[in-house]
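Input sequence (303 aa), recorded before submission:
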Amino acid sequence: MSKHVAVLMGGWSAEREVSLVTGKAVVKALKEAGYRATGIDVDRDVASVLKKKKPDVVFNALHGRFGEDGKIQGVLEILGIPYTHSGVMASALAMDKPIAKRLFADVGIPCAEGSVLHREQVQRGELIDPPYVIKPSNEGSSVGVRIVLEGDNFSAADEPWRFGEQVLVERYIAGREIQVAVMGDRALGAIEIQPKGRFYDYEAKYTDGKADHLMPAPIPEKDYEEACRLSLLAHQTLGCRGVSRADLRYDDTGGGPGKLYMLEINTQPGMTPLSLVPEIAAYHGIGFAELCGWMVEDAGCDR
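Predicted structure, token format:
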């Protein structure tokens, strides 16, 4: 008998729609790979639903809060069901960007300078000089991210903020968008994203034609290798398992050697038709169904 895989998708985060696209693609791929796959649109009764479905493995296709911040992982640990991607602690650490940055700094991974401010401080204008980036401390898919460049007519007091009390404010890193897929104990490769707007925002990530993908990333070989090294180190530092994706900036605007900066680790990278991890894997001969199957076989619990 093939394994019965419950694919968790949807949920109620700001990334619900993206999660549904990911989940449906994964269900289709797992069936092609010979698994019995059941899609579950997650609600608050997810534990009861899973007890009734009795899956052998859970493929976690949830994005955003509850899905990738350690909470659903804790539920699955209690139920004793092996699940894909990172465990409770690694998921929580990766989702908390300020904490992750401190851990990265401890092992020598360069990050953008920044600080955590209270929402009221930001709305009073207690910010650094531009250019800078404002982002939620615990959201994904660029939800809530705002880049403020020199000369922008921006007032935080006029911008509603619905992403919690903590706000991460970082120095804006000029240069290029580099992302690296990590699969188990190896970095698969690095891709460059060239958004057609100001940056690789939510729309550019999930709308066809809004960004160009260059695989492999056309940067010097030593910098390509360094991007892969830093991404694997970040994955290991947080204790991630399965598949993750590192988001980096490569600043080569000064005319000399470029410098890499780690922005964050995504422990639940998208698996949509426009997603980067499947594209990087495909470049190395790993098809989408094979990738999903590997993630199922790699599933486990922390306990």
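Checked by second reader. The chain has three domains: 4-85, 94-111+174-293, 114-171.
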